[in-house]
Amino acid sequence: MPTVGIDIGGTKVMAGVVDADGNILEKLRAETPDKSKSPKVVEDTIVELVLDLSDRHDVHAVGIGAAGWVDADRNRVLFAPHLSWRNEPLRDRLAGRLAVPVLVDNDANSAAWAEWRFGAGRGEDNLVMITLGTGIGGAILEDGQVKRGKYGVAGEFGHMQVVPGGHRCPCGNRGCWEQYSSGNALVREARELAAADSPVAYGIIEHVKGNIGDISGPMITELAREGDAMCIELLQDIGQWLGVGIANLAAALDPSCFVIGGGVSAADDLLIGPARDAFKRHLTGRGYRPEARVVRAQLGPEAGMVGAADLARLVARRFRRAKRRRVERYERYEKFAEARRSPSESL
Amino acid sequence: MPTVGIDIGGTKVMAGVVDADGNILEKLRAETPDKSKSPKVVEDTIVELVLDLSDRHDVHAVGIGAAGWVDADRNRVLFAPHLSWRNEPLRDRLAGRLAVPVLVDNDANSAAWAEWRFGAGRGEDNLVMITLGTGIGGAILEDGQVKRGKYGVAGEFGHMQVVPGGHRCPCGNRGCWEQYSSGNALVREARELAAADSPVAYGIIEHVKGNIGDISGPMITELAREGDAMCIELLQDIGQWLGVGIANLAAALDPSCFVIGGGVSAADDLLIGPARDAFKRHLTGRGYRPEARVVRAQLGPEAGMVGAADLARLVARRFRRAKRRRVERYERYEKFAEARRSPSESL
Known about the structure:
The structure is a homodimer. In chain A, 43% of the residues lie in helices and 19% in strands. The model of chain A has no long low-confidence stretch (mean pLDDT 93). Chain A starts with a strand and ends with a helix. By secondary structure, the first copy, chain A, is α/β, with parallel strands linked by helices. Chains A, B: Keywords: ATP-binding, Kinase, Nucleotide-binding, Transferase. Chains A, B: Pfam families: ROK. Chains A, B: Its EC number is 2.7.1.2. Chains A, B: This is Glucokinase.
């Protein structure tokens, strides 16, 4: 009973058919329509991808993991920094056009769900997921339930202030965690050092032939793996801030496990090692309490897509059950009506 | 069906008989035994208070709200900064001596429970409680359930880092939130200004006749109410940091309501006003999301005691039900046995 999962990020849309064990049967990609375009253009992209996949698969439900703030009813996208949605009733619009059950959730929530079902956080009863991409996404899973808060937007860890008066964040504040521990932070620091023609940056300057704008996150990870000292240090800095932030979350939430995902987590031990060290060094009450595990996510960039598909499966199952109940109710009524028509025979 | 609630803080132990509506029928106080004394001395104090109250009341259960970290089974106090408990099986020890059901919880959890049942947070489905005392206590209540995390110590908001490399905290870290927003922070700042003989501190210096060590939190609140500019500013500073911290918690947890309690909350609008302003100014995504209410706690310093008593009531009820089931089971067995003895008569 395959379902489709769709991950909508700031730059690309990923759509895939996923089976009940989390296996991806087919995958498509598209560019995310420009922020200046109307919300309908993004909808069109989603509908096209689903119809395309439906040609070859018997799609029973569609799940969307969106890089935006989804309301408590999981219908409206309240706000999406990289998309044109503002209080957009995405679920209802898509359900109208797709004729199958549609589920909408935040992309970090769906990634966390996937890691809990099939990945690094399998079976953890108190899981916190951190996705380090361009920014920081977050999710809280308790006993297999995504915690959304009162209005649906819990888990926005990236906008907790870690440095008073620190770097400006597009969210409107200063010193947000994601300004210190994310792909964007990594690239900003590298470009700054390169632009200042710092001796520590000569390696990467040479690598991009002086085109500082070409410096990217994956490039920094690659150079760090090859032993570039500056790139190793930058990942250490990001990892250190990651550790401080998860120590803060441990103080507040005391989870059993932190799963670290997102693009930057590809740096693996170059990032997670320093993060673990800083976590252990900053955890309040260390030595007097059990400590959460800090592990790297296992499902890679497809986690959001797989999670969205799996969450949609749950919704579809609920729909089917409700439908079955309706049918049964109707059949009971029919029986009853028939009995009343011919009382002598059946009563 | 009255139960006893006991609030154990760093300086005093409060014990009270509380009815099912949260009314305090009688209240006793004692000094908290010195940290250097053995854990048994604190137990003795608790037992004495309960026996004293039992002389005049039919006590059915005892609830303890302790200023310490309580494990997930709510039996052991893992760690208490102001008490001698280290991994102390408090519940079992007291249950052995008191012969009624005993419940142990963190003091901020029990205060939050009281505010949710009888106070400012009545019926809120996503409540976060902040108690500003000497430090910061915290609790998360969701649909009337205290969230404890995996190991029982969730809600330690006071030890989230808000200033990198900031003030030293006895927890072992630097820059913890409670070093900037608490009674201790308030007193530290006032004493520092007074010790520096700052002109802004002349009012309070005169008030304590130069004995800077006499400056206390309630005194600062009192002087602020009388219009002392420095004391007003200090409460604003504490309030501002309170607002920043709850904006961080709103990013992570998205609650419907923050309840601000603890001794410092007696300053009321002198504290909560600046806190609300800073919260609104620091909330990520402001303008694109519904905002949590920020309200002052209603039950005052007795909240922890009332909450502990009420939580104990729940436990006692569960005990009674289990006992009734045991009795019923026994009666069924008796009937059955009798039937077997005289089959002719009853079958």
